[in-house]
Design brief:
This protein is of the alpha+beta class and 727 residues long. It is 38% helix and 17% strand. The protein is built from 24 helices and 24 strands. The protein has a 6-stranded mixed β-sheet. A 4-stranded antiparallel β-sheet has the order 6-5-17-18, with no helix packed on it. Strands 13-14-9-15 form a 4-stranded mixed β-sheet, covered by helices on one side. Helix 2 crosses helix 3 and helix 8 packs across helix 9. The longest helix is centred in the first third of the chain and has 25 residues. The chain starts with a helix and ends with a helix. The relative contact order is 0.14.
Length: 727
């Protein structure tokens, strides 16, 4: 029976009357329910009735996975059962970012182009949430354009020049020894590494774009196009060279634009009240109409005008004292000085306060070190933070405050104000002056500001005569109503100096240290104006009897946004753009642009209206050269369309390094080469905002792609690149 059953089953399978699966199912059914009526086919019923142990080897051979799988008609797919994320994600991301872009560009050659211009991110450090937000929004827009049937044009780019990359390239202690070419080679390598790392991350995010051919601002063709924009501005007479007070960073040793500043709301300076003794002389004739010489005139004899300043280090550059002709001034006398009213030493901060400052500064240092490790910071930031932390720890241990930028020494007492001393101050600020000097003041006479104009007073450091002038920016809201004026260290002071022919004295070098450029500054030469030099000026004023009061003053102050250190105003020869000449055209062009949200238009228009000049030159090595030549004898500047065009042609072939590598004879146009010995090439570079702002000329030129349909950038671009784009 066993042999006959096996032969029957095998014969049924061979003949096709019974599949192995049917046999298995029949046997299982027979085992579970042996008394139930069986179904067709007949061969299966026979097998179930006569199943014996002899069929079990056959059953086992029929139930292997391979045989069962072969008997099923399943769909075929290459989709892996397992995710294998480490392998598949990079491949799929590249398909989303690169392959899809190339495919749509090839398949939609005749479709309408949609151009989203990519404002270049900075090639420094790893990507952060700001990058993600920017690129995610742009990717959403580009893919929506694809769904609408457009051919998308999106060429990513990178901004590769500027001070952060240069500072990263400079190793501690090597800044002075590196040649410009060596420094540029290091900076270029840093930028290339950052571009490669960021590009890989952008592709990994799946951002659609032309990642095989991105643009960089350090590419020779880009730099040449940027110089072409400079040439066009020269053609319109928009560039000029002049001396202006500009924001200067002693830490970075370069001029800064407004867009490169950040403001510290709690900066502490030493606010000083300084006396300028009036010299003998009648009031100006124009001021005599409403002035009684028997009242205020006699009261002015032996008096001193009082100025208030938060930058005592600018006193050596003083050229005038400004008043407001329509303000009322008072001549006050000092009454008997009580010991309790003498200026006292500033109170020492409590230990708990210092401990809190130490903790906060420790967090700053840790953040700076983390940023440096990630490639976003600089060693200078870490060193500055560590130095500040050490000062605070020393203060905590000794119980005495360490000097910080702008602080006055705790033992600095003002000069005693003798009984009967006469001072001139705005009438509305007499009480404030009395409180500041710690002495009761009695009003002896009042007079209009016009009565002071035309007189002279003695400089407190040298007795040099300085005039008393009228200025509209003088107010009696704070201070004394009289303004110390140093044209070399402030835009308002500079405007007064231009109006009255005053010298723009600036006895401060690129390191922020005093020079001997003026008689008053010679004694402080080599000292930092923000540190020891400021203290030295205060000490000299006290010893000369001119310092009436000195106190810590907390106020808003500009800082270099890269080095996080205070800046100063410094007058130096710079190249400027006349933005005022472009204002009308720029505003008209903005009206033809749809902006979302609408508030963005008002903000950008406010920036365009508010700026009249742009300081274009920077005293750095890593950037596009400002191709100006200077006469070796007269210092006359040479920057023309012809010279820029020739340099641009060299840059397009050899890159911007050629400015430092080639001689003047090679850099000058052919017709001027015989004059090469009379000219020297300058060392300035163009503002980095000019780099990114010229991207419309380098990337969106007609021979490369249609005009941009969309710009998508942050609001901070309004005070930099977008202004050049709109102009």
């Amino acid at each position: 029976p066993r042999r006959s059953t096996e032969s029957v089953a095998e014969a049924a399978i061979r003949d096709g009357r019974l599949s192995r699966l049917q046999l298995v199912r029949s046997l299982e059914f027979s085992t579970e329910r042996p008394r139930m009526r069986c179904c067709q086919p007949p061969a299966a019923r026979h097998c179930r009735r006569t199943a014996t142990a002899a069929l079990r080897p056959l059953l086992r051979s029929c139930t292997t996975k391979a045989r069962l799988k072969a008997s099923l008609n399943l769909p075929k797919t290459s989709f892996s059962l397992h995710a294998k994320v480490a392998e598949t994600e990079p491949r799929l991301a590249r398909q989303l970012a690169v392959d899809h872009y190339e495919r749509q560009a090839a398949q939609r050659g005749g479709a309408d182009a949609f151009v989203l211009h990519d404002g270049p991110p900075y090639a420094n450090g790893d990507l952060h949430m700001g990058h993600f937000l920017n690129k995610a929004l742009k990717d959403i827009i580009n893919r929506a354009a694809l769904l609408a049937g457009h051919r998308v044009h999106f060429r990513p780019g990178w901004d590769c020049h500027g001070l952060p990359i240069e500072m990263k390239a400079i190793q501690a202690g090597e800044a002075e020894s590196l040649s410009p070419l060596a420094l540029r080679a290091r900076a270029a390598e840093c930028a290339r590494e950052a571009v490669a790392a960021q590009r890989e991350s952008f592709v990994r995010w799946g951002v659609l774009g032309d990642w095989e051919a991105p643009y960089t601002t350090m590419a020779p063709e880009y730099e040449a196009a940027q110089l072409g924009v400079l040439q066009a501005m020269l053609r319109r007479g928009l560039l000029f060279r002049g001396e202006r007070p500009v924001h200067w960073s002693p830490a970075s040793r370069t001029a800064l634009a407004e867009a490169e500043l950040e403001y510290a709301d709690r900066h502490v300076s030493t606010a000083a009240h300084v006396a300028f003794p009036l010299l003998e002389g009648p009031p100006a004739a124009a001021a005599a109409a409403d002035f009684d010489p028997f009242d205020g005139g006699s009261a002015l004899e032996g008096a001193a005008v009082v100025v208030w300043t938060t930058t005592p280090w600018t006193i050596p550059a003083n050229q005038a004292v400004c008043v407001r002709e329509d303000l009322t001034y008072a001549v006050v006398e000092a009454s008997d000085v009580q010991p309790s009213q003498l200026p006292s030493e500033p109170a020492l901060p409590a230990a708990a306060e210092v401990e809190e400052r130490v903790r906060a500064q420790g967090e700053v240092v840790r953040a700076a070190k983390a940023a440096l490790k990630e490639g976003r910071g600089s060693k200078a930031e870490v060193e500055a933070g560590v130095a500040a932390l050490l000062r605070l720890k020393s203060e905590l241990q000794s119980g005495k405050p360490e000097l910080q930028p702008g602080d006055s020494p705790p033992n600095l007492n003002a000069s005693p104000l003798p009984h009967g001393a006469r001072l001139v101050v705005a009438a509305s600020l007499v009480d404030a002056l009395s409180e500041a000097v710690g002495t009761p003041l009695v009003v002896a006479a009042t007079l209009p500001g016009a009565a002071l104009i035309g007189r002279h007073c003695a400089h407190p450091l040298s007795a040099r005569p300085v005039p008393v002038l009228h200025a509209e920016h003088v107010t009696d809201d704070a201070g004394t109503g009289l303004v110390h004026t140093a044209p070399g260290h402030g835009p308002e002071d500079f405007a007064v100096g231009v109006a009255h022919g005053l010298a723009a004295a600036c006895p401060v070098d690129e390191k922020g240290c005093f020079t001997a450029a003026t008689e008053e500054a010679a004694g402080f030469a080599g000292e930092s104006v923000l540190y020891d030099g400021n203290e030295a000026v205060l000490t000299a004023l006290r010893e000369g009897g001119s310092l009436l009061a000195a106190a810590r003053h907390e106020h808003r102050y500009p800082y270099d946004w890269r080095s996080k250190t205070p800046v100063i105003f410094r007058t130096t020869p710079q190249w400027f753009v006349r933005l005022g000449d472009l204002r009308g055209e720029a505003l008209a062009a903005l009206h033809a642009v749809e902006m979302r949200p609408p508030a963005g238009r008002a903000r950008l228009e406010a920036f365009v209206r508010g700026r009249t000049e742009w300081c274009l030159s920077r005293q750095r090595s890593w950037g596009v050269p400002l191709p100006a030549f200077y006469h070796v004898e007269t210092g006359e500047a040479l920057l023309t369309e012809e010279t820029v065009e020739h340099v641009a042609s060299l840059v397009s072939t050899h890159g911007s390094d050629c400015w430092w590598r080639l001689s003047e004879a090679e850099l000058l146009p052919p017709r001027m080469r015989h004059e090469a010995a009379s000219w020297r090439k300058g060392g300035d570079t163009l503002d980095v905002w000019f780099d990114s702002g010229a991207s419309w000329a380098a990337v969106l030129s007609p021979d490369r792609c249609p005009p941009a349909d969309l710009y998508l950038e942050g609001l901070e671009q309004h005070d930099g690149r977008r202004q050049l784009d709109s102009c």
